[in-house]
Structures are given as C-alpha cells and as structure tokens.
Amino acid sequence: MEIKTSDNQKNLKKGLLIIAIVIFIVISLVLISYNLFSNKEAKLDQNQETESQEIKDIKLETNKIIIASGEWSPYVSENLLQEGVVSRIVRESFELKGFEVEYVYLPWARSMEEAKIGKYHGTFPWIKTTEREESFYYSVPIAYQKNVFFHRKDTDFNWATLQDLKNLTIGANSDYSYGEEVTQEINNGTLTVEYIVDDKANIKKLLAKRVDIVIADLDATSAIIKKLTEQEQEQITYHPRDITQDPLYLLLTKSITENKETMEIFNSGFKRLQESGKIEQYWNESRNGEYTQK
To answer: pLDDT tens digit string along 11-35?
Structure first.
C-alpha cells in the first residue's frame, strides 16, 4: 500500500507539472501576440506622428519656402540653369524679402495634391480655376502662357477667326487646354484636331507634313525648336496672332495658416523685382537660350 500511494503521488505531481507547463505556454503566446499588436499600433502611430511632424516642421521653418512643381521647360526645370526662367523669378522675389526657396520636382498632379494637404508650401505655375481657389492663395500673375499656331514656312498660312481653320488638320497636346472658344469649335466639329501628349512629337509631325499647323505654348515650343537641327529650325515659324494668353500663378496652400501672410510678402517681392527691370531681363535671357541645360 505504501508503494502504491507513492506512485499515485508521483503521477499527480507529474500531471500538475504538465498542466503548469501548458498554462505557461498559453500565457506566453497571449503575451507575445499582445506585444506584436502593440508594437504594430505604436509603429503606425509613430509613422502618423512623423508625417504630421514633417508638415508641422514646414510651417515652422518660416525663412524657407518649399515649392512643388513639374517639368515645363523653359518655365521650370531641374535640368536648366536657374531651374528655368519662372523658377528664377519666384526664387528672387522671395529672396528680396529674406526667404530661401527650395524646389521639389514631382509629376504635376502629385505636386498639386501634396501641396494642397500642406506637405509643401505651394506649387507653380498654374492657371486659375474656381476649384483651386478653394484650396490655395493665388499670387499676382508671375508669367503668361501664350498659345499660338506654329506652321511651316512653305505654307501660306493666315487666320483671323477659328472658322478660317476648318479645312486644316491641327496638332495639339491632349494634356493641355486651349480655351473655351477652341474647345467649343472642336466639339461642334468645326476644327479637326489630332491629339498626342508630346509637344516635340507634334513639331516632328508638322515637319513631316502630317499636320498643317500645331497649336502650342509659344515659349515652351520655341525652346523645343531650338534643340532641332538648323535645317529643321529654318522650316518652322509661328503666326503672331495669339489664340489664348492665360496668366500663370504661384499657389500657396490654405492648409498652412501662415501662407496668407507669406503670399503678401511674395507679391511685394515680385513687385520690387519687376520694378527693377530684372523680370524683363530674365525673359529676354531665356528666349535667347541663356538658360540652356546644365
């Protein structure tokens, strides 16, 4: 009987030990799962806090303005001297008032959206729309987008109204707007337009006589033509009558409270730069090819 009792006690102790081990394992697994979840939540909160802090830091760096933009030579480009003529005008307007400017280059849509939420102070250059006015402060006009018709010199081209173009094939860029009047004449079938998304390709089509004329921005397309061969350059000109002339603006986001005052400061600096004659000087330099690629 004594031996039997001893065996029972041993079995009981062994069973209790197994139960204790199982309980320990279960508790450990629960604690590990909780820690993993907590770390994940903490990391998410940290990321959100970091992003929020980045935006806050932009607001606090009052002497540095960060502006998002896309590539649009000769107006703005990280590949040009002075980063383009409009980039120089905006930068020096701020510098006259004691501000430093940094440009960030992004796809156009992204530059607009990220500036809108306050990741950057603003974006440029843009035309004015009602929708954008809800989210941005607008500067005074900083440049003008002048659309004209380019044509070959061997073509006897002239026009007074859009009705004069009804028998011609027009090359255009599908990413651009050319004003309400042109859009209306396209929609009602008066104008025949072939769209592509590359301005240089449109000029090549013009040279190859695949289109009769090309509607395009004067300064941007002139910069493209300057990069063609001399023989190709000699074949192209443009009609002096402009189709549209739209002002372009610097936009500062309303999500950064200080931007209302910052825009007033910029406008004051722009006025000083304009009165000095430097803005006209910079445009002449750009059109003479002095801001060519770095």
So the answer is: 566 666 677 676 767 676 666 665 6
* Per-residue pLDDT at 12: 60
| DSSP, res 85 | H
Q: 104 has which bridge partners?
A: 68
How many domains, the chain?
3
Question: Can you say whether the dihedral through the CA atoms of 205, 207, 209, 213 is positive or negative?
Answer: positive
> Is residue 196 a contact partner of residue 218, using CB atoms and an 8 Å limit?
no
Q: What is the DSSP letter of 243?
A: S
Which domain range does residue 26 map to? 9-56
Number of C-alpha atoms within 13 angstroms, CB side, residue 287? 8
Residue pLDDT, tens place only, 127-159:
998 999 999 999 999 999 999 999 999 999 999
For the chain, what is the largest distance between any 2 Cα atoms, rounded to a whole number of angstroms?
126
Alpha-carbon span 233 to 119, nearest angstrom = 42
- Within-domain flag for 133: yes
Alpha-carbon distance 14 to 81, whole Å? 83
CATH assignment at residue 197:
3.40.190.10
CA distance 71 to 81: 13
Contact 170, 215 (CB under 8 A): yes
60: confidence class by pLDDT, cuts 50, 70, 90: very low
Count the neighbouring beta carbons within 10 Å of the beta carbon of residue 162. Answer: 15
Separation in Å, CA 77 to CA 8, 64, 80: 88, 20, 6
Indicate whether 178 pLDDT > 90: no
- Hey, what amino acid is at 159? W
Identify whether the C-beta of residue 209 lies closer than 8 Å to the C-beta of residue 90: no
Same domain? For 87 and 207 the reply is no
- Residue 113 and residue 258 in one domain: yes
Q: What is the pLDDT of residue 39?
A: 56
The residue whose two tokens read 């500062």 is 252
